[in-house]
Amino acid sequence: MQSVLGQNSSQLEYIVIDGGSTDESPGILRRHGDRLHYWCSEADGGQYYAINKGFARTTGEVMGWLNSDDKHTPWTLSIVAEIFGAFPEIEWLTTMYPLRWDARGRAVRCSRRDGFSRAAFMAGENLPTGAWYAPGWLQQESTFWRRSLWERAGGKIDTRWKIAADLDLWLRFFRHAEPYAVDTPLAGFRQHGDQKTNQLKNEYQHEATQIFREGGGTTPGYVKSSLRSAAARCCPDFLRPVAAGFGLLHPCKLCLRRRDESGWRIVSALH
Length: 271
Description:
Elements: H1 2-5, E1 15-18, H2 25-31, E2 38-41, H3 47-55, E3 62-63, E4 71-72, H4 76-86, E5 92-95, E6 99-101, E7 107-110, H5 118-122, E8 144-146, H6 147-152, H7 165-174, E9 180-182, E10 187-190, H8 196-199, H9 201-214, H10 222-234, H11 240-245, E11 251-257, E12 264-270
Parallel strand pairs: 1-2, 5-9, 6-10, 9-11
Antiparallel strand pairs: 3-8, 4-10, 5-8, 6-7, 11-12
């Protein structure tokens, strides 16, 4: 909560749904209640049920959610608002630099993603694991979208899924729009031994793969996967369009900061 409220955004519509915690969470929510658009602490049907309940109370144009373990960076909301305000063509936005926090909330890892596209997603490149080329996932806590896209994609999280419903949401978003990736960290995933995704890692991978297969995704064979990996990592700039013609690189959209600090620019790239 501090990572969100500490940004002092005048346009923030912050909703917190707590599943009836018996620790200090309800007391913390009461203390900050005057800064929250809505909050509750009551038993519910689980994480994704709670997220749907929270989103049903929102009215804002740009949406996103943060799980209780995770944190935004201090600049997240201002950058997200700035980019969505400047570029009406952007329907959803994520980061090229997902962070990982440790149990003390320190940023201990930051790895680059070259971009995201529907073609790469449907080839399994954003699954959490696999025997094919998979450079990385879309980080949920760093992803934001317009309400219009949310509504076109069904307007809810699919509560059939226990732990990987974010991947299902991305799949539905991809049917309507390509994401843009910004070259600054926006948030981080906190990793510690007691979290659900750490304890249920195998279940998450199984569920994510099931969502991917049911959504029409297919993974490449060893040869194409190896060629794709080599092209993405080693292909010189002058040969990248040729590699793209053979399906070894995919077009994507990046949102980059101008060198003169005058704002942001949109760049087409191959990843």
